[in-house]
Amino acid sequence: MVQTFKDQNIKRGGETNTFQGVYVLVECFTWPQRIKTVLCFARLLEFLHGQAKQYLLLNISAAHIVLDKDWNPILLDFSTMSGGVLGERGPDKKHIPMAFGYVDPFLASTGLWWESCSDVFAFGVVILGTISKMIVGEEVLGVVHTDDIVLTDEWAKVEFKDGCSHVHKSLAANPYFYDSDGRKITALGMQCIDDDPDRCPTMKEAVERLESVLIVQHHADALGL
């Protein structure tokens, strides 16, 4: 999913630099494949967060994930990982900047970005970018932003209304797309980036909600889930 949000940009002869060093046609990353990728990544985070001594990534970004030929996400960057046998994040790691566009300003200002809610927020940005084709930092007209930069979470909050879907219209045209799935996944993404960390889901809850959508319920075998 590296540079998933650049589906419509950085094209080379009809191809898109969607994954680091891997060029695929824009149309190849379909709605079912996106759902599989997001769910599998959610399961990875659930596994890390669910250990007796919790592991945290603290540097989630679409640019740190590649996909194999079956659209399974492979995490590349563990530079800021902490917890478990690695211990707490030390002073050296705390000086490593977290991925631009994936950090909640509230969490940063309160020091909570060393907690699991930081990973959940970044996962929400991944969800919303993947379903909307919104690029982190892409300029969007009508959105208040600084230095001509719009972040995915800012855009999503401005555009969101109860019961709406942030799914890109080209993805909603897929025969495996269900309207209710678009609304449910959008709502999950929005809850992950909620201003109040206490209202954010755990990764276990996020996985359960993703597993409940109709495309997964009806086509799990076809998706390789």
TrEMBL record:
Q: Which domain of life is it from?
A: Eukaryota
**Stated name of the protein:** Uncharacterized protein
- Organism of this sequence: Vaccinium darrowii
